[in-house]
Task: structure prediction
Amino acid sequence: MIDREATVAALLLNYDHNPQEGLLVYRRAIASGLRGIANNPDVHVNLALYLMALGESVEAEATFRKALDLAPAHIASLYNLGYLLYTQHRASEAASIFRQVLALDPAHVNAMINLANSLQSLMQRDLAQGLMRQAQLLAPDNYLPASFELFESTYDTSSTDATIFTKAKHAADLRCAGFQTPIQMQIKKPWYQGERPLQVGFVSGDFKMHPVGFFLQDWLPFVDKSRLTLHAFSMLEVDDAVAQKLRAQFATWQSVARMGDEEVQALTAKLGIDLLIDLSGHTDMNRLPLFACRAAPVQISWLGWYATTGVANMDYFLTDRISSPESSAAHHSERLLYLPTTRLCLCEPIFAPPVSPLPALQNKRITFGSLQSLLKITDATLHLWRRVLERTPSAHLHIRCTQLGQAEMVALFEQRLRDFELPLARIELLSPVSYAAYLESYQSIDLMLDTIPFSGGTTTAEALWMGVPTLTLLGNTLIARQGASLMSTAGLADWVADSEEDYVAKALYWSGHLDELAELRAGLREAVRASPLFDSPRFARAFTEAIESAYNANLLLQPLRDI
Result:
């Protein structure tokens, strides 16, 4: 006799459809009262995964916990709950859950990896690296430990373009294993301006309120659609306000999160994509295998990642000459494709209040600021900031970020500050606030202290708009040169230090020249508005010309391929 409940449960667990439909199917099935479904923890886990895909994190967490009520040692429920907590910046809770998974299954490599990620967020980098090495021994072909090592290298002051290239190549080889043979393509003839628009695709999981979304939204409307037709291939299945704004600038918007690489290749072929631009690199939701097997005649890496991809079939890396000097070209799998001034076009922040007078004039002391993630506040950064505060004994430092909204993270970070002998009495640790209030917080800061070696991007741009310059240190990798590129393009090259001693000296200089700093602050918004950083029409033209030249140059460098 057929067990109808077990049969329906099995069908549900093999059900694979879009999240909206899946959500309805699972809810109806659980509401049916069939015990084989309502009491099956796997069914609740799948429902929770659909809820996660749709951004319903509160209900997803409750659903995972319902599954654990049914089966407290259910590994899938524990693991996915831990991952959800990690994505919500609840690193301590996530670490506890991943430890429970490993107690049940000591060889659960993904739990080991995510425990390491959680410990990294808790500023326990040594423990995290040890776990990743253990995971690498258990699963040498797993991409994630290599990716973690690559990311960690961007926070290491000893890293260079050469060392990061080695790590990126290793990570790419693992990520793209089995995909490195290019598919055969046919390019019928060279393209000439005016004959037809080039079909340009963008692949990303960050078409949303994210630096990638912010760096796209203002200049895309100025692209000449007679020269470029833009197509979006999104790894997101939900929209926010930025995604909705971006949608209007693309001729097509394809959700490819649930498509295999062959399906996406077929889609790019159907749309006649001439160039495909990667906006993820080695970050979450990347589709590097798609590029490894060449989904378009010309492929370019740009936003979202800040080093070479290490992927052999990635043709170009779009950058600027400060971020990527010609000396770094040998340490890229791609050819460097230079924009004339800046690799980033910044958007004018919404809700931005007017630029305030310099607070130091009223406070009679300077206030430094950092509004970046705690991950960027490395040991090297704390050593440097201690030197600055020692030389400016009346100065205060304001630090605000998402992690400081949790009491545990505040306590952990305060202990780090004590360990590095920073003066806690002069440091204010501030909780996260709304975006409008976040921008207002620049009104209490005189100048920003950049982190090393992972310099600021969006935060530096927002600070400039609020009249607050950033003191940055020129480093040895793209991400360590990002601040230098931004400040130089804004006309503030003298805010780029060439050594730690110079960084400290510049901080000391500005703390003693408040009238000069006040004058700079008063005119900074209008100065950067007129600079290439915020000139959207100019950037759109430069981007278009770079894309067109790359397409035709690539035809000369590669033989035509027949299908």
